[in-house]
Specification:
2 domains, 173 residues, 3-stranded parallel β-sheet, Transcription Regulator spoIIAA
């Protein structure tokens, strides 16, 4: 009987590369993909198995890049897609696995699909991509349910009323 293999990530040593501060290749004061690429040999000496790459898609940067405006591009702040492809190729040639930090719950209010949804009719396919439920109470000021924030503070509804930068994607579309 064959022994089931252990998933690679089970015992992996991952290194989080926060692009903005990891290594600046062009002297503009902001770390970038080319900088991360030149830092790969150093990471290899540490014995890491993989990289956890912070968000690098175009974003208004209200939440360290987790408010993505375009999932199919690279933020010019960090370099182009060719820089991203080069980083991946070099990382893989050194045997590194690469994990991208992506939050599938929400996007940026600047995302084209959300902009389209804002102008669409209720019930349309464009609107169904996002969660547009209002709150309870006379002015909709109360959360629509009793869910509280996991780490304290405001609920998602309360945050979204204060910060309209994080449209919630609908899981029902």
């Amino acid at each position: 009987m064959a022994t089931p293999s252990v998933p690679w990530w089970r015992d992996a040593v991952m290194y989080q590369v926060y692009l903005r501060s990891f290594l600046d290749s062009d002297g503009d004061g902001v770390g970038d993909l080319r900088g991360a690429r030149t830092g790969l040999p150093y990471l290899a000496t540490l014995g890491v198995d993989g990289l956890w790459l912070s968000p690098c898609s175009p974003s208004p940067q209200h939440d360290h890049g987790h408010d993505v405006a375009d999932y199919c591009a690279s933020d010019p702040l960090f370099g182009g897609l060719h820089d991203f492809d080069g980083l991946l190729a070099d990382a893989h040639s050194l045997g590194f696995k690469v994990i991208l930090d992506v939050v599938p719950h929400h996007c940026s209010a600047q995302h084209p699909r959300f902009r389209e949804a804002l102008g669409a009719e209720p019930g349309s396919a464009a609107r169904k991509r996002f969660h547009f439920a209002g709150g309870r109470g006379t002015g909709g000021e109360l959360p629509p349910n009793n869910w509280r924030a996991m780490f304290g503070g405001h609920s998602v509804l309360e945050r979204s009323q204060q910060l309209s930068d994080f449209p919630a994607l609908s899981r029902n579309c």
